[in-house]
């Protein structure tokens, strides 16, 4: 017990835990909309693009002689991720067939651009490791302030506009016929996804960001069939796995990002395994509505009589 | 003279390379119940999708309740029922959540207080009040269609635009739907409905517009079915509401009709 108190009084751990808690709550909220639109891999695409942004920030930082030279990495990632996600949204609207192709090009372009630019900036691809796999233990107060602001924004928009974002994600055509600002709402989802990727970058890393957005939602879907509750369950699971995963790494030196994702997948596996047991407990009523049909079916007894030789 | 509920003039619509609507005029006065008829591919759905603003006409203009299509249209006074739900979405949602999205319109981006009650009342109108909490994906196709009707009714529209609302809906539900529509029309609802055939709604319809090859070929009293329609050699490719569903199932090549199932069950 005293060890937990000790952990909680460590300022480094306090910052990291707060960041993990906020990211854990926010990522599944945005993930719910992505899963709803069948864009579960969008987070990955944006994550790859953000890597180019990290390298670009690094390049500009070292060109300007800033110390440390990666001070612009996170702002670079934010800007590039937003531009990338808006581009993906534009491509998705223009030609529906080329949506996943555009995503694929972003994946590869993002990684290749990142590695190329970091070399020009005088770093090595090793310098990118902290961004690819997370580096929550190095969260500074400035990082924390940025994380708090962005997470508050994501939660405010993601939860506050839930009904409208649900409508546009569920049936875009109906949303248009309701006169909703569909274009703006679609862009809002794209920008939310980009911001989520960049805040989650510090906690789980760009390569694992999408898992934090999607896996808690997958768990939520197993236990409820309401959109609102799926989002709520996802958010709670996100907070739990982030906080527990990070706390464990206080004692065991493993990668927090990887542990958080493995924990989330383990929870998914357990819930999916228990699901049939939970489902069986529900009252097994007749699911068919009791309404008359207009088919005349001969009584069972006479039908059997006809068939027996 | 009153403002027409729908006033489309000289509408041309291109979908990709195909010129789907070729100069369509459609005027619906308040209180009318207009059926839009025509063969598959004649442009019925394209026309209603253009009327509610989903598609943009390449030529011509559409006015809804006296306002040109755009932000000025009072969308809360219009209800639209699309042909069928877009493939089940990735995240489950309850019938009442889907219906509640009909409460949003124009600049109203959040649900009003008491949305659950409103959604339930709308579901009650289509006879699904007891399924409010069920996932939409667990409902049958016909029930999903009724949820979409409830979504359009929840905002209490003056003008209702429906695209084949009774396709794949069983006959008792069609009768219930016709009864609901009769009540709403008596209260002054204006309706534009795409139909394959008049069916249960026949008594309600005041005028029919027939499209053929993207042009209006008839506008007036509901037309009689084609003379050969009831002949013995006529081959039905669509369900006939006046016949037994089991027979319809055979027409469209579904051998697992209810009668067959009964026969098989009875075998030792």
UniProtKB/TrEMBL annotation, chain A:
Pfam families named in the record:
ABC-3 (PF00950)
| Compartments (UniProt record) | Cell membrane; Membrane
| Start and end residues of each stretch annotated as Disordered | 285-309
Q: Which InterPro entries match?
A: ABC_BtuC-like, ABC_TroCD
| Annotated protein name in UniProt | Metal ABC transporter permease
Superkingdom, taxonomy of origin: Bacteria
The entry's family comment says: Belongs to the ABC-3 integral membrane protein family.
Membrane topology term reads: Multi-pass membrane protein
Transmembrane segment boundaries:
12-34, 46-66, 72-91, 103-124, 144-168, 180-200, 206-224, 231-252, 258-278
Source organism:
Isoptericola chiayiensis
Q: Which UniProt keywords apply?
A: Membrane, Transmembrane, Transmembrane helix, Transport
From TrEMBL, chain B:
InterPro entries given for it?
A: AAA+_ATPase, ABC_transporter-like_ATP-bd, ABC_transporter-like_CS, Metal_Ion_Import_ABC, P-loop_NTPase
GO molecular function terms here? ATP binding
Q: Record's PROSITE patterns?
A: ABC_TRANSPORTER_1 (PS00211), ABC_TRANSPORTER_2 (PS50893)
| Compositional bias annotation for Basic and acidic residues | 227-240
Give the UniProt keywords, A-Z.
Answer: ATP-binding, Nucleotide-binding, Transport
Residue ranges of the ABC transporter domain? 6-238
Family affiliation: Belongs to the ABC transporter superfamily.
Name of protein: Metal ABC transporter ATP-binding protein
């Amino acid at each position: 017990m005293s060890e937990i108190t000790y952990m909680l009084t460590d300022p480094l751990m306090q910052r990291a835990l707060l960041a993990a808690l906020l990211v854990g709550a926010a990522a599944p909220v945005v993930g719910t909309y992505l899963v709803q639109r069948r864009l579960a891999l969008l987070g990955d695409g944006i994550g790859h693009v953000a890597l180019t942004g990290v390298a670009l920030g690094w390049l500009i930082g070292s060109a300007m002689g800033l110390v440390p030279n990666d001070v612009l990495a996170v702002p670079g990632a934010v800007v590039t991720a937003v531009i990338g996600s808006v581009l993906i949204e534009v491509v998705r609207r223009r030609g529906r067939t080329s949506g996943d192709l555009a995503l694929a090009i972003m994946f590869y372009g993002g990684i290749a651009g990142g590695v190329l630019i970091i070399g020009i900036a005088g770093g090595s691809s090793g310098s990118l490791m902290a961004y690819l796999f997370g580096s929550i233990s190095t969260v500074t107060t400035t990082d924390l302030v940025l994380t708090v602001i962005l997470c508050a924004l994501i939660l405010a928009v993601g939860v506050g506009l839930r009904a409208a974002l649900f409508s546009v994600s569920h049936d875009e055509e109906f949303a248009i016929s309701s006169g909703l600002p569909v274009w703006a709402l679609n862009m809002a989802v794209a920008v939310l996804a980009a911001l989520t990727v960049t805040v989650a970058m510090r906690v789980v890393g760009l390569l694992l960001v999408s898992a934090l957005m999607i896996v808690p939602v997958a768990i939520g879907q197993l236990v409820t069939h309401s959109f609102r509750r799926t989002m709520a369950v996802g958010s709670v699971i996100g907070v739990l796995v982030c906080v527990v995963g990070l706390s464990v790494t206080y004692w065991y030196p493993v990668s927090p990002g990887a542990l958080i994702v493995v924990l989330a997948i383990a929870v998914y596996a357990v819930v999916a395994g228990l699901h049939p047991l939970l489902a069986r407990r529900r009252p097994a009523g007749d699911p068919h509505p009791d309404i008359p049909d207009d088919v005349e079916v001969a009584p069972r007894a006479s039908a059997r009589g006809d068939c027996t030789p | 003279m009153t403002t027409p509920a729908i006033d489309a003039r000289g509408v041309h619509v291109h979908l990709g390379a195909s010129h789907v609507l070729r100069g369509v005029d459609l005027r619906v006065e308040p209180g009318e119940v207009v059926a839009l008829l025509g063969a598959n591919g004649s442009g019925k759905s394209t026309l209603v999708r253009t009327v509610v603003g989903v598609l943009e006409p390449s030529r011509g203009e559409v006015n809804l309740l006296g306002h040109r299509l755009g932000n000025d249209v009072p969308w809360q006074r219009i209800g639209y029922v699309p042909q069928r739900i877009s493939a089940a979405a990735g995240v489950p949602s309850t019938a009442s959540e889907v219906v509640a999205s009909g409460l949003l319109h124009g600049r109203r981006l959040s649900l009003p207080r008491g949305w659950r009650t409103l959604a339930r009342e709308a579901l009650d109108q289509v006879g699904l009040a007891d399924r409010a909490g069920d996932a939409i994906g667990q409902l049958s196709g016909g029930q999903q269609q009724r949820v979409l009707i409830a979504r359009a009714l929840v905002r209490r529209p003056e003008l209702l635009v429906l695209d084949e609302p009774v396709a794949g809906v069983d006959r008792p539900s069609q009768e219930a739907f016709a009864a609901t529509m009769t009540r709403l029309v008596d209260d002054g609802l204006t309706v534009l409905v795409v139909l394959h055939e008049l069916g249960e709604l026949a008594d309600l319809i005041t005028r029919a517009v027939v499209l053929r090859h993207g042009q209006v070929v008839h506008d007036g009293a509901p037309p009689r079915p084609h003379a050969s329609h009831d002949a013995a050699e006529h081959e039905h490719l669509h369900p006939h509401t006046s016949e037994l569903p089991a027979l319809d199932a055979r027409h469209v090549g579904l051998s697992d009709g209810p009668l067959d199932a009964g026969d098989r069950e009875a075998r030792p």
